[in-house]
Amino acid sequence: MPKVKIPPVLRAQTGGQSVVEAAGDDVGAVLNALTEAHPDLARQLFDDAGDLNRYVNVYLNDEDVRLLDGLGTAAKEGDTVVILPAMAGG
Amino acid sequence: MTPPTDVKTRASGADLISRAKDSIEEVQPTEARDQAADGAILVDVREQHEFEERHIEGAVLVPRGHLESRIEQFVPDRSGRVILYCATGIRSALAAKTMMEELGYEDVASMAGGITLWRDRGLPVVTPRALTQEQKERYSRHVLVPEIGLEGQLKLLDAKVLLLGTGGLGSPTALYLAAAGVGTLGLVDDDVVDASNLQRQVIHNTDTIGMAKTESARKAIEALNPDVKVEEHATRLDASNVIELLEQYDIVVDGADNFPTRYLLNDASVRLKKPVVSASILAFDGQISTFVPFEGPCYRCLYPTPPPPELAPSCGAAGVLGVLPGIMGLLQALEVVKLVTGAGTPLIGRLLLFEALGTEFTELKVKRDPDCPICGPNAPEIADEDLGKFPDYDLFCAG
Lengths: 90, 399
Hints:
heterodimer, A: alpha+beta, Ubiquitin-like (UB roll), about 15% helix, globular, B: five-stranded parallel beta sheet, 17 helices, 13 strands, disordered C terminus
């Protein structure tokens, strides 16, 4: 199963876990599996139309999925999905 | 009396020099100039102090006494054309013999008459600025590293770097850039030192609690390195002062603690084409990237809109491990040194994440966004008062 890295600001919604395994053969399916297991994440990741919120960057391994096939980007065993909101702390 | 037999075989210094010159190729200064223009590497084998007084432009310094230990750093290719010179052509002849016969270089020549004849022929030399004796001692470990060297140190001394924030990130960055001899450090911060800062903001100390952070930081910097000129800007960056402030500096280090400042800085830095080394921290996580306008992506290419307040807590609200900004701030200082000296590969187009609990680094690619409203090809003109703004500007958390 692909792994999903959860940023600090969303870990309250995953019970404190920073890495969660989620099944799916594309990034959208992986994120859906993630939000099924942790429903509070859905509102943070997706807008009402089901698209990724623009303030959340999602990477498959080291590539921004928006520059690949978006939520349709194929994911496989061993891949890492990184959820990355901007941080401002200094 | 019969003299000892080895006296006959012992050569004088003059003999050795003469034999060396016979066994190597010598070129005239004009030939050396032409060949250097065609790609031959010019190596000055004199001592550091002679090189500092004057040398031929483009030459690298490898004193003859360090030839065996250092030449490979500067001339890794043993088959390429190399021309050595010294003051008069003697040390370079001996060094050329060593390089050909003992170090395996295949195409080495010595410049006849050295830099003395070069100058007599009316050819140009550069007379670089030198370090003072005190600076030579202070920066000796930089000068020894080929990637920095004297030239890099002089660039650092000439550099003007603006630090946005003298807090968690700005403290270590300022200390190490000051130690490195960055000639001018501008400090932007309108805060005063609080006891709760001292767990991570190491440029301040117990005695400076209650003092303006810029003043507290200036005192620490001046105690560390009197070469550094500190400019205090005890103000908050806003649309009315950002352009004027940035114009005075070469590089900006973003250690701001809020999104409005980060977007404002980005928009102004793109307009002025100033590189920004940007880092942020929260709890155990840090991010860093270097934004060089039009060469790589800008902050808005990476983060087109800020997150809503519930996803953007400040360190004051969420806490931060004190060591974390030390690590991220020093990565920022490293980026600045690389940008100033030209050494290495900066984090342009790369976002480096650090997770402190697992001690884990993750690198992500960041590309320029063709639709970026600030650095994209179709970006509109933005009035000064609109820098840093976006539709939901007032909605999100400030600090």
